[in-house]
């Protein structure tokens, strides 16, 4: 066929469904495209114009689209591949046609890479969203179909790459838009290059059995038609062998060879109305034996893409099973040509058909009420994903964001850390402001810095996605929360200290839950945050915990008493001759009080030999401090508010085996410092329950050790030993 003949064929095809098409415009488009592509050749060696002509032919023949679509199909490669620009097409034809061509070119420019399923789905959506006008994607699919039909001239790598892309992107989009016929062809052509051996096996097998299959189909068809004629049900019956990719997929998913594939044949019965669909089903089930579990009513429950039909599989004569699909003419049009079918209906003034199934088409129709068909087509935009934009990360992943999304939304969609450290953004390589609205297909890059100050409050207003907004709010809440926790904790611990308790006394699975229950906070941090924020006070916290704290204090005292008792015989032995002393508790004699609860304050951890003083707490007995402890400072002791609560205490002779206390070593930081400290503790036979060591920025190390000592004398020895370590500047007993 010459180029001119091919063009005439196109005109004839269009005339067949749209006699009032603007043929002079279409011819101008053809001639302009021919001129633009003059001298260009396809890989096959043919003049380039063959391709746009063939695409227009598909658009007309398969989809029966309007004049604008035909013109755009003819012109679809002029912006991408020739010097012609959007303005030229717009001036010579129309802005709409120029937009259609530009839209197709944009889709052509997208680079695909195989990704995981979710990414592929986003890519598909992006393509549809970028199309804006649905005709763009329809022309693009037609373009791809022709390229796949002529793929034999491309290099093997290109064949594989394009086929994979077709299989993963274009065939599923065709399916989504309801265009089954084009979907099949795209799948079969892709399979041919993706698995040539598997494809060839199926095709040659089908060819070899063609006569046999044809006879079977004719016979079966006749059986059905005869019965329907008798019943006076108007009908059309088609029989076909299933397409190679569908057979291929079944062989794979069911792990079967070609002979074992269940239903190689499919019959289609087209009737006038839904009632007849069910009548035909009855007839089919009467003539043939239905296979259990193979009946599906997609008329009652349509598929998500709007597909409607009755499906059943029956056993034919000769024991060959086959599938029967029964549907009305309207349903058939929709299943074959999908979205395009709706168009045609509207165009021909036949109403919108089954548009209810296409939610978005229905919405469009509502918006178009009163508008004429032409206007409807012009404004038919894809609003399937109108409230979403799809943008690329620099490495080609697709992010799905709400319409109007900004770089802020994008950054937080990647990760809150990216958002919190964002200092700038680039779109398609150019620096943009944070409120720059993103468009589908944009490549967005976020510039971050470790030193970023974090989000600003304005960002909450700029961000379009709830995700970004809530992450920004979280950041502010958390920032403050950290601060609040620090302050709240300090206040709480100070209050505890008053009572001679430390955090250590509170922690532990047998204690903390009970205490938290008293203050009704789920965690200590939550309580601290509340105290820091001012919603709660440390005094209240301690007073609510009081009962529980008393129980803990008592428990500890009992435990220690038990330990003392166990050690008693030994003590008795060594001190058998010593005169009976005034009764003491844990080695402490409290003036004027017998048998009272004694607690060693954790702030200064006194040991026998230290000068000590007692403080009567509310409900926890006497708390013992070193006289030099800031918490027992002369000022505090003179405080009239606390007067009468300070009490004289002294060490008895029956002191405990050991007392917990704390030492702090400040040293010039050096290698093995901690090793030497440990060695010193070990040679003095010191019981160590914990060491914490930290380096300061200016080259010093501070080691804090929790130890147990018998008395001040042992303590003195340990301090001396630690002081001898090279680099040690100071050894102290912390207090306050
Ligand atoms: Mn093309």
Protein architecture, described:
It is built from 30 helices and 21 strands. It has 736 residues and is of the alpha+beta class. Strands 1, 2, 3, 4, 5 and 6 form a six-stranded mixed β-sheet that branches. A hairpin with a 4-residue loop joins strand 19 (687-695) and strand 20. The longest helix is centred in the last third of the chain and has 37 residues, at 538-574. The structure holds manganese (II) ion. Residues 51, 76-77, 143 line the site of manganese (II) ion.
Overall radius of gyration: 43 Å
What structural class do helix, strand and pairing data support? alpha+beta
Query: How helical, in percent, are the residues?
Result: 40-55%
Low-confidence stretches: 344-384, 568-581
Find the count of extended strands (DSSP E, 2+ residues).
Answer: 21
Give the overall average pLDDT: 81
Proportion of strand residues = 5-15%
Shape: elongated
Provide the fold topology:
Layout: H1 3-17, H2 23-36, H3 50-61, H4 67-74, H5 78-81, H6 86-92, H7 95-109, H8 117-131, H9 134-149, H10 156-176, H11 180-194, H12 196-208, H13 210-230, E1 236-241, H14 244-253, E2 265-271, H15 274-287, E3 289-290, E4 296-297, E5 310-315, E6 321-328, H16 329-337, H17 339-347, H18 359-367, H19 373-379, E7 388-392, E8 398-402, H20 407-414, H21 416-420, E9 422-427, E10 430-432, E11 444-448, H22 458-462, H23 466-498, H24 503-506, H25 512-519, H26 524-533, H27 538-574, E12 588-590, E13 598-600, E14 612-616, E15 622-626, H28 634-638, E16 646-647, E17 649-651, E18 659-668, H29 673-683, E19 687-695, E20 700-709, H30 712-723, E21 728-732
